[in-house]
Amino acid sequence: PFLLIPNRPSKKMTLYWLLHVCFCSRALSHTPVSLHINQTHHCKLLPGLVSSQAQLCRSNLELMQTIIAAAREVKKTCQKTFADMRWNCSSIDIPRFVLLFSTGTRESAFVYALSAAAISHTIARACTSGDLRLCSCGPIPGEIPEPGYRWGGCADNLHYGLVMGSKFSDAPMKMKKAGSHANKLMHLHNSEVGRQALRDALVMKCKCHGVSGSCSIRTCWRGLQDLKDIAMDLKTKYLSATKVVHRPMGTRKQLVPKDIDIRPVRENELVYLQSSPDFCAKNDKLGSIGTQDRQCNKTSIGSDSCDLMCCGRGYNPYTEKLVERCHCKYHWCCYVTCKKCERIVERYVCK
Question: DSSP letters along 269-326, please?
């Protein structure tokens, strides 16, 4: 089984972990590369899908292959984005760290937002590349371009990506047995924040035409920024995320800021319900793998500094030999030759 959770957590906790991994890491991102979803019975081979997701898989097999690719991308992008911080996304790949995502932490907020953005992003790009037969290029903008510009190319189909991505991403949270109402609201909100970050990442891209590279005419289309750029935007929102509480507002309960509850939650801000651990020491119950043996930067004053990364425990130095290309020369026409140079660098890891 893909769930290996000791001490047998409650059904609610297990469910939240299932919902998390179904589009993040422990399930779809670990689907074998050799598995191609081209027959309906293959949907049964994908762990963690709720009924509506399984139905979406059976009715659109090509789409599932794209979603699996998105899940793998979430894991890699998350870990690169947080490589300089105590929490570096490693815990999204460790099934025993349940509480970090089941209790509605700041980290949970980021992962849900990134997952929602990544799924829609990958679908939109797949339409452009022709990998999905049910969609094609995005529409040509209605506004008239400036002189010297013309609409053309193949735009990323953001609309289709958002529609199909939200159907998949939000399906677990719309189940009746999806846990507490507060957690459902939080995850639905953060997923929408991720998709809004994707909308903001739609920019104009152009290709030049003209004699001798004069660029007298530019053919332009609307394309999405890379997922790594969207992840950095969401990281900024993570750092300024708002802690919320679930309380009655009018005729129903809503999420409102805990410290400034006179205003509603903003549509573009990540929200969380529970404070996170400091991630300094390993603690399975709190979802922390600790920072022992993590590499740190001795000269930095940021989150990757040895003081902050090592939580005051100190650090150990070691040396590493690097082999790099050097003394490169360009030869007419048209190749480059380089020599190999060795240098010794000093590294530092936390005690």
Answer: S-EESSPPP--SSEETTTTEE--TT-EEBTT--STTBHHHHTTTS-EEEEEEEEEEEE
